[in-house]
């Protein structure tokens, strides 16, 4: 199944090994198995493309269909007066679809390879990392309809779009941390996938997805409770959504695109790197039990 160069005898580490030992082992495994990760990503994308008639084209159609649903709900039913709302909401739908697909796929990334894990010794950490990386490919597909939507608002096409890959790198780091943690936890708690789905739905509506962060902060309920502003600003997707919108849509008052909040992005990236390390340590600590449970 795997390329010949990817075969290796993986040394099982005691669950009592020091955290730094586990982390260094995880880094070496990933660094030495880049070809295997690339193979897994290609296999994952090929499988997605063959599972449905339209395959990866759904990465183009699905965000557009979601945009249409929210456009009807917010613009017609809720009667929002937000300027250029289709672009406003699309700038949040696309990164959210990327993250939610990573969460859904990563929860089963280890479990669905149970038979392989019991038969072959290989670094299991590559499984969630490959899943998170495959999400990047899907996100790239999603940029196609984004470009199409932007042509409807030519004044929004500015050099600020060059920030999109930078913001995507920050989201990728956060997605890897999530994928590693969920893939390990789901081995022992098989209901995690169902729980994650409900958490994601709640998280979407508690994030500035259908509205801007400024709109939320101007609510009297929030103004009377300053701590809610702090909690909302600490939400990773408040940072990401606002960053994507700044460079794609513009300011909340309808102004042209501007640079994102670099300080917030750097802070989120550093936190994500720390979370990746902690998740990798946890993964390596419970990895010896995978074969027993699966």
Query: Count of helical segments?
Result: 14
Uncertain regions spanning at least 5 consecutive residues: 1-11
* Intertermini distance: 19 Å
What is the beta-strand fraction? under 5%
Please provide a written account of the structure.
With 294 residues, the protein is mainly α. The chain is globular, with a radius of gyration of 20 Å. The chain starts with 18 loop residues before the first helix and ends with a helix. The model is unreliable at 1-11 (pLDDT under 50). It has 14 helices and no strands. Helices cover 70% and strands 0% of the residues.
Indicate the topology.
Blueprint: H1 19-32, H2 34-51, H3 58-77, H4 85-106, H5 114-119, H6 126-150, H7 164-188, H8 192-206, H9 213-217, H10 220-223, H11 226-234, H12 236-248, H13 262-286, H14 290-293
Helix pairs in contact: 1-13, 2-6, 3-4, 3-6, 4-6, 4-7, 4-8, 4-12, 6-7, 7-12, 7-13
What descriptive keywords fit this protein?
294 residues, mainly alpha, 14 helices, 70% helix, globular
What's this model, at a glance?
The chain has 294 residues and is mainly alpha-helical. 70% of the residues lie in helices and 0% in strands.
